[in-house]
Amino acid sequence: MSVFLEVEHVTTYRYSKPVEFSPHRVMFRPRAAHDIRVLSATLAVSPHSTQFWMQDVFSNSVAIVEPRVPAETLEFHARFVIEHFGVKNLELPVAPEAENYPFQYTDEDRLDLAPFLPPQYPDDQPVLRDWVAQFLPRRGTTHTRDILANINTAIRSDFQYQSRDAMGTQRPSETLNRHSGTCRDFALLMMETVRGLGLAARFVSGYLYDQALDTPAPPAVRNTGLQQGARQVESRDEPLVAGAGATHAWLHVFLPGAGWVPYDPTNSLVGGTDLIRVAFTRKPEQAAPVCGSWLGDAQDFMSMDVRVSVRRIEQQAQPASVGERP
């Protein structure tokens, strides 16, 4: 049974005086496929700006926004309505040759999966191998899905979720050492762990629907800041409560026969209708919701506020603006 969800995402940057802006890359729009249909999509920008849409190297929808006048405030206000059909990922049949671990991808699959196989942090692999050893059989084989499920569950149960205002993502070894992190940290940890096992994995950014936050009023605004001197404008991807109420991050693992299967180690989810993907990339840095720069003194920057609301709505009679069915 499909569900209808409305996503509202507002990112606001404030400055002490009018500053000039470079073109910004914005990735807010949900990525449609057989399980998600985008019924309407709007992106309003203040101050006056021009915008056009393109597909990046991963075929994610990216809006290129060019503010035309200096301003004290730069605001991106996106609203989407989607129909989420969901997929029972645990019921997808894995190819017989991949049911048990270890297995090898075919030569053809390895060619296509090449960008998503090498670890991003090869120096962290020894400590990751030590950690993941507890989920591997001492002899013989075990079900591939059982290993992935155990990793997904262990991160949810053994690690503490903590929001963080600092930019960027922790190294996997740092997350292991701290036993805490954000959704981005947990997604990267599992992604690097399964890549070390020889499985293809990719980073996914998007939104998370939580019935507990399903209210007309959006969640509280999160105040954040920029690195001094860097002048890079980039939206945080940190949730308020286990990924809901803000942008969220998880990963896909490629299993022959089942394809790209979503795993959310922050909440121990395997797909479903609560995960709303926006983009998938080779590494977290490529999935920034907003990326751009501004021209001015470092002290001109005051704050960045992010507000995300995801709520369930009644079935739409007709698409409000942009309709598509893959």
UniProtKB/TrEMBL annotation:
Residues 175-267 form the Transglutaminase-like domain. SMART domains: TGc (SM00460). This is Transglutaminase domain-containing protein. Transmembrane segments: none annotated. Pfam families: Bact_transglu_N, Transglut_core. It comes from Caballeronia pedi. InterPro entries: Bac_transglu_N, Papain-like_cys_pep_sf, Transglutaminase-like.
